[in-house]
Amino acid sequence: MRKIPVFIAFMLLTRGLFAQNKYNQIDSNGLKQGLWVSDYPAERVETNYYNGQRHGICVAYSRMSNKISSIGEFRNNVMSGTWYMFDDYGILLYKVVDIVENKDNYSFADGTHYYGGKPKHKAHFVNYYPNGNVESEGTILFSDSFESESSQYGMWNYYDDKGNLIKSEEIKGVKRVMEK
Question: What are the tens digits of pLDDT across the range 148-161?
Answer without folding.
Answer: 777 888 899 999 99
